[in-house]
Model the fold of this input.
Amino acid sequence: MNNIKNLSLFGVCFAFVVIALGAWTRLVDAGLGCPDWPGCYGFVVFPTDAAEIALAESRFPSFPYDINKAIPEVVHRYFAATLGLIAIFLAYISFKHTNNQRLRWWSLGLLIFICCQGLFGYLTVSLKLLPIIVTGHLFGGFFTLSLFFYIFLKAGNFDILNKMKIPHLKNISLVAMAFLLFQIFLGAWTSTNYASLACVDFPTCQGTFLPEMDFKEGFNFSQEVGPNYLYGLLDNSARVAIHYSHRVSAILVTIVFLILISKLWFSAAAPLASTLGILLLTQISLGIINVVYVLPLYVAIAHNLIAATLLLATLTVNYLAWKK
Done:
């Protein structure tokens, strides 16, 4: 069981790295840094010398080669593939060294899901950054992290967590998880549609609290496959609708989490109240900084990572609330 606990914890840490690399790739507009998959311009890694670059551009004349975009894409792919190998080892150990059927099936489910993530990675490139595919791929990264963490919790059987009995918080913890997942989806949809800078002022948006918005176009999930979605195809009012929705949802998430934190504070799981509070405040601050300072790269990456950490903290609360 210790092997499963240690390997799943390593998977959690590695999944954080993959999420950070995915955010980096997206933020530097390197999603099509390699226009093919799984190679890069037909190479195992990426072209380096003049002859290879010339060959690469002859293969994909519509995609001029840029090594500054190829590197983030290739690095992200190889780290994601390594995460898949970790999942394979975890499934193998689960079936080889434990009789715990639940752990076996959770590990197998994780492996299957990561294979689906690989498929979405292929579709991301082949469909030229189709928003709904990219959003699903980004959201799937958070789900992969959560699966590794859940297996870690199940395998660890930690005494300190076993003492935290909070069955009376089942409903509010579940509601908080649902709101947070929706907010993460909105964040992914905002980034996918290049709407992060649709509002560059705060707390107003384009100088008003109620800017012109096109929700129908902004949340059109059935967009047709186009030639290339790099930098987005939506008009300004549609992007504002997406960005504005993300802001309003953040307010709702904050209200729900404040209720959860207040109830946790007077429960056996009181330490988790301060953890959630610090993470929530940090995430709100990073979101505001992203707007005011025009999406600084490392701040935007941190915004993704704190969202992932907040998700794991909320998952822990739900684990304790629903644990039998």
Remarks:
- The chain has two domains: 1-157, 163-324.
- The mean pLDDT is 94.
- Residues 163-324 form one domain.
